């Protein structure tokens, strides 16, 4: 199994000279299972470059299995530009959660963008076969020779973290995730019950992540920035390292880079985090994700 980053930026596309080395496109990860099954996690603007590369390999129909972590724009707004949607014979299957507030299934993230106020081509004008699979939380699904597990993360909307497994190799992507914290102060009547709830949720995530070969985590903030952003639904480099250490992950890839952070600043904050945590536990390797980074899992 192998995977490749096509978008590593959080919140808003951020092209330009400041971000040229790590990339300005929003979240998209291409995964290839051992038999070549294409799994795409998230449809941020990076999915357009992925689509172009698929077409460059020949204009043959594409079979794509797209898994959406959650419906925020930076994770879906490249979807209508996924060129295989316009190629007859292609089959694009979109997977994701139900929005518990609206009751909308995953078809909504496509439908909302294809309203003619926002996009000139309707779904009926697209030549590919488009299918929607709304996932049950916690229910694994087979895709080619891979299995995709999901677990509920912590974000202002439902966000599914995905673990992809194939022939004993695995990766996990959090989507957007803020480690749990108790919203009630000690002594508050609901503190203990809430604490039990978040410990259970956190343990459920750890169980799905445990032993993963490649752990890809939302590292939007430094620990210094985090207090002003608590509750926004994003994590820190330090929390990602703690998750990796706790679960025995072999490699950690930090992603969802802040749009305000240029390449030099990103490398500076990363160097600070790594220096503080040296030596890393259990041979853990940690990387900053960048557009074009491809990883083969042996
Ligand atoms: Zn995001
Ligand atoms: Zn989000």
Automatic annotation (TrEMBL):
* InterPro entries according to UniProt: Metallo-B-lactamas, RibonucZ/Hydroxyglut_hydro
Superkingdom of source = Bacteria
Instruction: Give one Pfam hit by family name.
Output: Lactamase_B_2
Please state every residue range assigned to the domain named Metallo-beta-lactamase: 25-212
Q: Coiled-coil ranges per the record?
A: none
What protein is this chain from? Phosphoribosyl 1,2-cyclic phosphodiesterase
């Amino acid at each position: 199994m192998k995977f490749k980053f096509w978008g590593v930026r959080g919140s808003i596309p951020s092209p330009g000279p400041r971000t040229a080395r790590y990339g300005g496109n929003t979240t998209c990860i291409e995964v290839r299972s051992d038999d070549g099954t294409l799994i795409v996690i998230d449809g941020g603007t990076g999915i357009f470059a992925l689509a172009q590369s698929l077409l460059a390999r020949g204009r043959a129909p594409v079979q794509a299995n797209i898994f959406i972590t959650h419906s925020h724009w930076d994770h879906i707004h490249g979807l209508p530009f996924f060129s295989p949607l316009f190629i007859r014979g292609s089959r694009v299957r979109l997977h994701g959660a139900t929005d518990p507030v609206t009751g909308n299934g995953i078809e909504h993230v496509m439908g909302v963008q294809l309203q003619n106020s926002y996009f000139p081509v309707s779904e009926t004008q697209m030549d590919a076969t488009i299918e929607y699979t709304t996932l049950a939380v916690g229910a694994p699904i087979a895709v080619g020779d891979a299995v995709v597990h999901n677990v509920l993360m912590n974000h202002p909307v439902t966000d599914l973290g995905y673990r992809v497994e194939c022939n004993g190799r695995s990766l996990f992507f959090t989507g957007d995730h803020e480690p749990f914290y108790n919203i009630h102060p000690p002594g508050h009547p609901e503190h203990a019950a809430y604490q039990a709830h978040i410990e259970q949720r956190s343990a459920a995530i750890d169980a799905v992540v445990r032993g993963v070969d490649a752990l890809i985590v939302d590292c939007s903030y430094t620990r210094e920035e985090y207090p002003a952003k608590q509750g926004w639904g994003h994590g820190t480099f330090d929390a990602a390292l703690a998750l990796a250490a706790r679960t025995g992950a072999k490699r950690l890839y930090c992603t969802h880079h802040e749009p305000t952070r240029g390449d030099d600043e990103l490398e500076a904050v990363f160097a600070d985090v790594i220096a503080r945590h040296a030596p890393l536990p259990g041979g853990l390797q940690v990387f900053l994700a960048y557009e074009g980074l491809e990883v083969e899992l042996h």
